[in-house]
Protein 1
Amino acid sequence: MAEHPPAVVAARRDLLRQVAAEFGSAYVYDLDLVRSNAAAVRAALAPVQLCYVVKANPLHEVVLALDDVLDGVAVTSPGELRHVRELGVAPERVTFGGPVPTPADVARAVRWGVRAVHLASAADLAPARAARDAAGTGTALALRVDPAGGALPADPVRGAVPGDPVRGAVPPDPVGRAVPADPAGAPSRFGVAEEALPGLAERGLLDAVQGVHVHAGSRLRDWAVVARRSAHLARIAGSLAARLGRPLDHVGLGGGFGVRHPTDGRVLELDRLSPALRGLPTAFPLSPGGKAVLELGRYLVAPGGVLVTAVVGERWSRGTRFVFTDCGHHGFPVPSPTGGPHRVVPLDDRPFDRTAPPVVVCGPLSAPADEFGVVRGWAPRPGDAVAVCDAGAYGYSMSPQFFLSRRTPAEVVVEHGRARLVRERIDPGDYLSWGRPT
């Protein structure tokens, strides 16, 4: 871990120490790294278009940085829709969806003229079509489809990860669900079941459909699984277009690419996946102006961000050394966005001592989940700063910031090698007083 730190730490170690000294606990997002990585992914997958999923990190600096180099953004709530509109993102670069978009939400998106809306049920099509006809915009109405479970291969690298000799076995992915043997798959609140499409089409309930959207997983790191799931989507799109008697204007490939897992180091082999995805637009029955769109969030921004925080104390228990940092679970949810423990990299320059006992790095909370990960060979000192890695996604905005009334971390961006404070730390006295009678 110490010999091979992630790129953002390897390139910015001195700057990260300065941020920790000046601002205290802070998220640091390297916009230069995020832009270059995103541009490389886009180039590898072209002609498939690539959109940024705003929920991964809605900070305006991040959204605008990625809108500069990608083909657009994907939002999943009215708040995110308003956010990107106020940031000046062009409506034709925006895709809107969510598990239960209300007719009013859809109408608002359609009136603005977004590229496409992903609708969760056939019943949503009629009001969406009426809103689009009234607005006179070119928004594509895409139906979200829940693929038949038996047709989708499982990702062999998801689920339980190897046990840690210091802390024991890591629990299975808390959101992973076993798919039953029944070809129809498990019940899902996301989209229309694939096997229901023929009957809906025969009854004329899909006449307004102009596109299809499928999201069949998350944290996927096996390129072959992603390729086969995408090929299955091509079959869904082809079958639907045949039943409708016309090509589609929009095919949403979903996303769900996983980042490097800290326990096994396995990464998604983009160079092997790229040829499979590049050929998809020709496999889809797309209209002349139709687009095949991949939506990624975590994969684009998680590796470009870290949480820097400093050691504030330590404790030994039954031969195990616990080190406590200023920021913990309240500022960065655990387990990490990778589905396991976080990578923790000390920022001091002292050499590692391989004879030193492993160190469990924890936050300061009285909560069992408040542990980041294990560092081996490190002899920490009070005030030492550490970088908690893969923090660019699902960190600040997903954290239980008000839990136990501790100061929130700041948010800092790095651009052209310089750090800039974007959001200051919030003192608990400030938010505890909100709504208090004066």
Note: Residues 29 and 413 are 5 Å apart (CA to CA).
Protein 2
Amino acid sequence: MQSYFYRSNTKISQYPNMQKIALFRLQNQQITHPKFSKIKDVAAWQGATQAQDFTHAKWAIGLRLPGTTDADLEAAIDRAEIIRTHLLRPTWHFVAAEDARWMLRLSKPQILPVLFTMDKQIGLDEKIYQNALPILAKSLENGRQLTREELMLELQKHGIPTTNSTATHLMMRAELEEIVCNGVRRGKQFTYALLDERVPKTKILDRPEAIAELARRYFSSHAPATLQDFQWWSGLKMADARAGLQAAKPNLVSETIEKQVFWLPSHFQPKPAAPLSVHLLPAFDEFLVSYKNRTASLSSEKNAQIITGNGIFKPVVLVNGQVRGIWQRTFKKDKIVIEKTLFSDLDEAENAAFERSAAQFSDFVGMKIEQR
């Protein structure tokens, strides 16, 4: 087999192997050479897109779909083309609506034990859940959409005490039981709706089928990646992650780089790398968060400046697939202020590329940018 990492017919050949991994990931993750035209297709391709920071998560999809605006993302969410729910590790993710049920069903067995352990600490037990879940479902019948606070008031009317911690667990359990999902935003407030009223019934995959499908999605959209990367991203037990990789192998090829085995689709064709690419990645972007080993793009000595001890992934400035620093955006009345903190200064060409990326973000949010 001809090595993908040594092909000489593209400009990628000038880069060291680990940097080629970063460049190939940029392509597969649709950050460069995007191939989709619909928001739901990007969401489906990615499998799941981490979305705990809602504003940044919308940009994560917009970045991969040039010409899309923040308003377009809001509309797609309101139409339930994509769903925001808890799954995988778990945390909030965007998924294509048709994938929501099988991914929730796959994630439930790995998330519930984590919830049960924490439930004991905050005074929740199975009896409370069995009393609360039907009330939550009844409260949302006939297209009614309520905020979490409004739903907690409904529970309190029935004698079920709630706190911020118990509210979080109650709603996550309602998601995992396929009762609720996100509704239409009410101003800046998030609402919940019945999943059955928002998302048509779809085929449910059995567990081996779901594991295989998740592996196929991951190694198509996030490659090159290792088994350990997939296990981290999916939250699956290692035995299940291995089974998923095994099921996906007929459509994958592997290469060993620096004693790590990387997998990528057998049909993958590297695109010519641009001489220079600069991207403003949102917080928690899949380009970093979805790998256990991130050294292809982020050096170990810079890791703590990008990923905090409590697992916060900062928005980063990416130059040719390498993290060069962080950026922050502050919303003002009539503009957005962007500030960047870099590991090293950008040269003239890199600054010009940064300006283009900032302009793309400006177009996405529909506001003027001021840089500092």
Note: The two ends are 49 Å apart (CA to CA).
Protein 3
Amino acid sequence: LLTQEAQATAPTPTLAPYVPPAGEWATRTPSEAGFDPARLAVAIEFAQSCASSTPVDIAEYIKASFGHELHSDIVGPTKPRAATNGLLLRSGYLVAEWGDTARPDMTFSVTKTYLSSVVGIASDRGYLRVHDPVAQVVKTPEFEGERHSQITWDHLLRQTSDWRGTLFGKPAWADRPPRGATEAESKAVPMREPGTSWEYNDVCVNLLAYAAMEVFRRPLPQVLRDEIMDPIGASRSWRWHGYSTSWVTLDGQQMQSVSGGGHHGGGMFVSTRDQARFGLLCLRRGVWGERRLLSESWIQAARTPTDVRPDYGYMNWFLNAPGVSDTGSPALVWPAAPESAVMFRGAGSNLVYIDDVHDIVLCLRWVDHRRANEILERLLGALEDQ
């Protein structure tokens, strides 16, 4: 494996960067893409062996994972999951693919990355400024009061708002409380100043989606389609769902505020192939061919560590930086990967790995996320041009 110093100066692939047109995807053999074919085959075989134990019935999975929570009823659509599948890109070319990568599937919290990108569009257009309080442009009760009026877009994007309230029938205090905690105990957790603590809370995520819809004055799936998914040549098979309880009236029209994940059902239902296109856009730092869809400054902000959670940038950019990783280790989250690598992660597990040192996008669906570093170790070990 490369040292961090060697990774920083690793040679770039010899292939010229490629942008796949809509409905097409040029392929390259492992050898053409700079991989040892035998070692890459071993790496892919290992990835396939790391199948998730997530039940095929996603509704049952949600109940098993979150059924201990009060207000855990499922209010968004679900869908039985596909088998393990994946896709590997280098320099934009399709190098390897396995399983059913064309089937739209729930992607859980990877939805948050689509959501943060939509907020990025609003920021790039000057509709909002991320370090300003949301209340400056969103005039709803959720952002009223001395404390909530100080919550910024940056706080919501970084999951540091500690917003307290109820949205679409889901109280924020009921999201991922300590197991065994009573309602009174969960409600009694002291409030923290925005920006001083990090909490993975889907109610606060859904609040960001609602606020963004208030800014655009139209459903976020339309914004995502027009500004990102159609321009990158995604299929028309993806869907972004909200809750049965999240319909609101905006400018006299009924609109559904979408969810940022599948905690209570809903979120993005998207194919691995479409997810790979989105990952390639992020690898290219917001540029698709001759067109810039997200600003360089927005991508850089998304990749900037959160003070109180150094391995987390904007929703849902997980960073490979020393900090508070899932294991509690101060080492890199994925020691096999370059420090600049990022990953979008969703339950199940759904993973999008982005490696700008090696010009790689790897999409994995329904794998054991605990084996991610082992998969990357084998994948990057198969490169010839290290």
Note: The longest helix spans residues 202-216.
